[in-house]
Amino acid sequence: MAEATEEKKADSDSKRVHTYPLIRHSDMNDEMKTEAMELCVTACEKFASNNENAAKMIKDTMDKKFGASWHAVVGEGYGFEITHEVKNLLYMFFGGNIAIILWKCS
Amino acid sequence: MPQKQQPKAKANQSVERKRSKRGEDDLTDTGDAAEPDDWMQTKALVKPEDQLDLTDAELKEEFTRILTANNPHAPQNIVRYSFKERQFKQMSSVDQLAIHFSLDGNLLHKESEEARRQLNRYGKQSQDSEDAPEIKEATSAAAGITAVDEGGDEGAADGEAKEDAGEDGAAPTVPKAKVRSVEKKLTNQFNFSERASQTYNNPYRDRGTVTEPPPRASFASNVTQWEIYDAYQEDFEKQEKTKEKKVVPGRKDEGRTKKKFTMSESTSDDITRIESAAKIVERMINQNTYDDIAQDFKYWEDVSDEYRDQEGTLLPLWKFSFEKAKKLAITSVCWSPMYKDLFAVSCGSYDFMKQGNGLIIFWTLKNPSFPECYFETDSGVMCLDIHPQHPHLIAAGFYDGSVAVFSAVEKKEGPIHRCTAKNGKHTDPVWQVRWQKDDADNNMNFYSISSDGRICLWTILKNEMIFQDVIKLLLPDVSAEGPDGIKVPTTGCGTAFDFHQQKDYLFLVGTEEGKVHICSKSYTSHFIDTIHAHNMAVYKVCWNKFHPKIFITCSADWTVKIWEMHDPMVKHDNNENRKPLFSFDLNNSVGDVAWAPYSSTVFAAVTSDGKAFVYDLNINKYEPLCEQMVAQKKKTKLTHVEFNPTFPIMIVGDDRGCIVSLKLSPNLRKMKAEKKGAPPPDEATKIQREIEKLDKILTMVREQPT
User: Fold this and answer.
1) Rounded (10°) angle between helices B113-128 and B131-154
2) What is the CATH number of the domain that holds A91?
3) How far is A82 from chain B, CA to nearest CA, in Å?
4) What DSSP designation does A38 have?
5) In which element (H, E) is residue A36 found?
6) Residue spans with biased composition (Low complexity) (chain B) (predicted)?
7) Residue A85 lies in a domain
8) Beta-carbon count within 10 A of B685 CB
9) Cross-strand bridge partners of residue B433
10) What span, in angstroms and rounded, lies between the C-alpha atoms of B260 and A61?
11) Residue A55 lies in a domain
């Protein structure tokens, strides 16, 4: 985290830092996409210092809203190879340093 | 008595003792019955603490007990009123009977007579299903017996308690017996119907299917801080760009819409806006109004034709007349090559003294009430032709000698091209125009013929129309004297021409002198052949639609003639005075003649006395199949006739601006009967057959002369 903040500072010094949610890849329909995106934003803002809780919140809320077996990963650096149900994938960045991958697979 | 009383007291004593022994809970009040002590002694299992210890002497003491039949509780002093003696009297006799316990047994010994009977009655039931209950019953019954026995042994004092205990065993037997009695209820044998019934229960089955799993896809990526950073950077740049772009096209769009708005404002006033709708409504109304004609057009066949061999009729269908053309003559008619129901007519005047304006009118069979479109011209239109490939283009020739090209699609009132005196205008009325195939440079071109003796080729370039004289009809032997004694060469007056269908260069020219020249585009001053065909002006020359050498002419000299083109290589002596293959006298000036598109032997002609003639050489070589008055008024002259290329109708124009469409009756379009079962012939064989048909007739005629 310390590194990240340093990076942030460096960024803000040199260039602007963008913190808006940026959807990198998604095959959801628009309605679902916006909802999921907003949820991710709220979760990450609520648990800014605890990615685990944020992921848990995202997963639980998605399970409630769109049915079971959602998976969410929130983190600053990781690699993944997932299999998801079509039309149920969201891969986005938020806050300038967090990547969120959210998918459904039962 | 005292003897007797003592034991009684003793008994009472013992009872008292027993009571004290058992305590308060034993509430049963018992009379005599067997003394339990004797019984107990033998067993002597339990010795109550407060039992009296008796000495041997006391124990050996004998008590004589006399059992009497008297009930100690029975009242001794019952007094009843005797009516006989009118006083209360003591009853001497007292009922001494006391029942302490009774139990009706219903147990049977298995081998007893009754049990056997019962077994017989229930037969199998007891054998297979009720075997076990029977035994149970027996055992329980046995238990009951023992219980009763015990009760009996222990004494009546315990009777009720015992009965309670025995109920456990005995109770099940009682309802069993009841059930059995219910089951055995006798049915009414005369009128019995069993109410209960049980349907067959369908067996349950499990059935499973496997649905397709929801489609899945894989996705993989890596998250690193720099990737996130790059992605944001990229996206941000994109956003900036789109912002810039959005601003620019926004303005453009505004401009465009404004332009459009102004355009629509300027062009579409109220009338043009409803034009298409009005047109649809107009067509609908016409369809209703002329429904009977449309039905006739499609379905009416003259039944009487079956009873006439060599005659046919023409059924008048729609009549087309236009207010502005009322005083003009129809100078030519032409079907549209694209739309089967559309045709164009030109209106002008044949009268030299009454020249005025002209008209080109497009009519459709779907709307006889008003033209599809029309062009007004300052001079009489004498001829027109619709371009076969571009059906919106119309070439027209005027009485003043000019030619012009109109376009039906362009919203332009006048012609798109028109020649003037400067560029090759004819000096006399143009009698016929005809589109030709596009030339080597793909420019559209057409020919015109005029009384001034010139045949011109008009080529349409981008913005202009250029002309070229193809042939000049000179009369070689006659020359007129000019006012100053100069010899002026006289020219022949062309009135009609027709181009050969196969040979591009070959064409016929009819002249006012009654001659027919066979010409070639290649020779500008020389005729391939010349026939002295008529004595008066030739109004129409027309190649046969099938036979390449046959053509027809009509003339003001009342005749229609059919000719054969001689082989130019073979020299004929009397070309000039050659005789036609056929000649028909129609008893009036023949305005127009037209070959039928469906047969090589059928042609139609119209005359100035308002009659239309239809001939079929295959059926009758001398007389018309149909001679019919078409014009409404006696003095109306028929000027032109044309067959529709597809439908069995033809249109006839008169000199009052009116056009009548006529349906040909079945006899007029009789084709050579096909062999039954034979496949429909293709186009080439059809043409071949038509040529053969005509040739067969011609051979008979050819041999006749000489």
Assistant:
1) 140
2) 3.30.740.10
3) 5
4) H
5) helix A30-46
6) 1-11
7) yes
8) 10
9) B448
10) 52
11) yes
Contact B231, B222 (CB under 8 A): no
Residue B187 CA to residue B280 CA, distance in Å, equals 89
| Nearest neighbour of A82 by CB, restricted to B218, B225, B233 | B218
The pTM of the full predicted model, rounded to 2 decimals, is 0.53
Partner-chain residue, chosen from A7, A18, A22, that has the shortest CB–CB distance to B225: A7
pLDDT at residue B525 in the model: 72
Q: What is the DSSP string of B412-428?
A: -SS-SEE--TTTT--SS
Q: How confident is the model at residue A80 (pLDDT cuts 50, 70, 90)?
A: very high
Q: Domain count of chain A?
A: 1
Please provide the DSSP assignment of B195-218 as one string.
Answer: ----PPPPPP------PPPPPEEE
Contact across the interface for B214 and A86, Cβ inside 8 Å: yes
Residue A13 within any structural domain of the chain: no
CA-nearest of B624, B622, B601 to B614 is: B624
Closest CA in chain A for residue B235: A22
Q: Which residues of A touch B211 (CB under 8 A)?
A: none
Closest chain B residue to A21, measured at CA: B232
Q: What is the pLDDT of residue B536?
A: 87
- Which range is most confident: A96-100, B13-17, B98-102, B116-120? A96-100
Does residue A11 sit within a domain?
no
Under DSSP, is residue B444 helix (H, G, I), strand (E, B) or coil? strand
Average pLDDT, chain B: 77
Tens digit of pLDDT for each residue in B163-205? 444 444 444 444 554 555 556 677 777 877 777 878 888 889 9
Provide the angle, in degrees to the nearest 10, between the axes of the packed helices B173-183 and B131-154: 130
Total residues belonging to chain B: 706
For residue B31, give the DSSP letter. Answer: -
Instruction: Report d(CA B259, CA A17) in Å as an integer.
Output: 44
Q: Backbone phi, then psi, for A18, in 5-degree steps?
A: -100, 130
Report CB contact under 8 Å: A84, B216: yes
Of B489, B443, B449, B503, which is closest to residue B471 (Cα–Cα)? Answer: B449
CB atoms near residue B469 (< 10 Å): 12
Range of the domain at A58: 21-105
Task: Report CB contact under 8 Å: A81, B231.
Answer: no
Among candidates B217, B224, B228 on the partner chain, residue whose Cβ is nearest the Cβ of A96: B228
C-alpha B224 chain-centroid distance: 59
Q: What is the Cα–Cα distance from B48 to B66, expressed in whole angstroms? A: 28
